[in-house]
Amino acid sequence: MEGCLDHLAEQASGFIAEASKQDAPFFLYFPLTAPHKPVWPAKRFQGTTKLGSYGDFVAQVDWTVGSVLKAIDGAGVRDNTIVIYTSDNGSFMYRLDESDAKGHVDDDSVQGFRSDRHRANGPLRGTKADIWEAGHRVPFFVRWPGKVRKGNRSATTVCLTDVFATLADVVAKPKPTNAAPDSFSFLPDLHGKKRETERPIVIHHSSGGMFSGRLGDWKLVLGNGSGGRQQPKGKPFARPYQLFNLANDLGESEDVLSQNPQVAKELEAAVQAITKDHPI
Predict the structure, then answer these.
(1) Which of 125, 126, 129, 248 makes the best surface tag, with the fewest CB within 10 Å?
(2) What value does the mean pLDDT take over residues 110-134?
(3) Could you tell me the residue ranges of all domains in the chain?
């Protein structure tokens, strides 16, 4: 088991080496098995961090990604290869505020970190599986030499579904008819340009069936709790709903629905229109 990441990295690097010899574009989808459980870092990474085996496992993930980037560079295709590095959800580690609490560093079975040591989801509320931002807002990095300016940042809302339409734009191919209706190209953002139209509402879904709608800085939670792991879990579509302005409240600590009822009404209608046409 501990050789899994090394094996995957070897396979990915081998594919890149062979594909780059062909006079045609190539596509590599490389979903890592780590740092998901079981936590099993290779021996050479064990004890290399001060955050226990999970921290060591994260360090090995970093090394694995680095080996793939080196394979691209070594194949001589760095300058015309776009690399997207992201995650499918936020960390499952919750915050332990008590200074003497036993955390994941002390006991691998505890799914939480003391805040004086680490906080995987930063200022975001909740964890993986929740409808809160910590469950859905993830790092999203793009390396594209000559196209994406180094160190550039964008505040535009992007969803993982948008990768499809974006890559179709990159290779100048239209989306097939009826394909990926929830995918919208963010190619202008990569070039540092303003989109002609704002991205339509993004719909999120918790493990317990709680929906939310995100449009610009506004986020409406269509339920009365996390819909996942954090208390209160609440129930989907149970009122009162919750509205947050993420521009000045990234931690979703202040429900501003009563002050902005029209915004909430419009977001709710947008979510209902999409879920009605595309039932889950």
Answers:
(1) 248
(2) 87
(3) 4-158, 202-277
Question: Which of 25, 26, 33 lies closest to 9 in space, CA to CA?
Answer: 33
Q: Give the pair of three-digit tokens for residue 56.
A: 């060591």
For residues 64 and 9, is the Cβ–Cβ distance under 8 A?
Answer: yes
Instruction: Please give the CATH topology (third level) of the domain spanning 4-158.
Output: Alkaline Phosphatase, subunit A (3.40.720)
pTM summary value: 0.90
Which CATH architecture group holds 202-277?
2-Layer Sandwich (3.30)
Question: CA 120, CA 94: separation in Å to the nearest integer?
Answer: 8
Closest CA to 223 of 215, 214, 211, 213: 211
CA distances from 272 to 1, 32, 225, 242 (A): 44, 34, 19, 16
- Residue 266 identity: E
Task: Give residue-wise pLDDT tens across range 206-250.
Answer: 999 999 999 999 999 999 999 999 999 999 999 999 999 999 999
Q: Which residues of 24-55 are buried (b: 16+ CB within 10 A; e: fewer)?
A: eeeeeeeebebbeeebbbbeebbeebebbbbb
CB-count exposure of residue 211 (10 Å: 0-12, 13-18, 19+): buried
Q: Could you tell me which of 228, 223, 254 has the C-alpha nearest to residue 240?
A: 223
